[in-house]
Amino acid sequence: MTRAWLAALLLAGLPAFAQEQPAQPEELKLQAEYPVEGMAVGNLSGLAWCSDALWAVSDREDDRLYRLTPADNLLLAEAETFEAPPVTDSGLPWGLRTRSWLASQVRGGELDFEGLACDAEGNRYLVSEAHVSVLRLPPAATGGEWLALPSGMVRQARASGMLLRFNALLEGISVNPEGSRLWLAAERERRGLLVLHREQTKWTCAGGCVLFSEGGSQVAPPQLDVPAQPRDFSDLTFFAGHLFTLERQAYRVCRRNPGNGEVERCWSFAGEALQEPRRYGMQTFGLAEGLVIDEKGAWIGLDNGSVARNDGEQRPIVWRFAAPSGGWSAK
């Protein structure tokens, strides 16, 4: 085989090879950004649309949610307080629970609420990372109840490589409108999705709690110029029959099959998020922690930990992105 013939063969094969490469995710277009006024300790860790309003939760406060109301290019946060009963034992090992408790003595937020979801009746569901538990709050209630999650859920998750590391436990929650199916997102190292089904007042693992788990690293957008980071989930939400995951390190939102977690399509928000005025100093990781999807677009909330970004803004931020071309269900 001559070199010329080999070169021609390789060149002829290039177009076919290029077509097999994954397409770059479509960039979402930012419509507006809203500083959040009124979250005293900041640390916005979850978002949800409940009834007629956007709500937020902070992982540093164990006794309140925030209703977010637009006003003068801001979102005004109005607190609704509640009292959580003593948390039930989820089966998480003593060592992880102890490390979480010690951390809370320094930073606050012993329950470490990392996600928020609502069903069609207005019930709110808050996931506690520190205890791998879910608190259910009825509409306008001052008290809630911890869901009776399956006793084998934590064991199954850990056998799949999830929920093994401190501060890398459950990071997101979603529920279907009927309140009969609940999804939980394990954050990283390994990340994955769990699914639970309600039977009367109990929650079960129908065919197993683990939808999938995966390890590995995620290449950050080129604007960050940092080494690859562990793949992660920072929130998830259910809309129009699909699960949508917020993937913080990749600066993207992905649509997934709710039955097996398989990714169907992704959209990037890196182009808007990493513009110089919106950057946070020597930032090496993503800050997006809250996700809501609706027909017209997406809400994405940032947990900036009270750190000021390059334009001086220090409050939590919520972005409003337009829906992608063709809508969220497009192939």
From TrEMBL:
InterPro entries attached to this UniProt entry: Phytase-like_dom
SUPFAM superfamilies assigned: YWTD domain
Domain Phytase-like: 40-191
Signal sequence annotation: 1-18
Keywords (A to Z) from UniProt: Signal
Name assigned to this protein: Phytase-like domain-containing protein
Organism of provenance: Zestomonas carbonaria
Lineage of source species: Bacteria, Pseudomonadati, Pseudomonadota, Gammaproteobacteria, Pseudomonadales
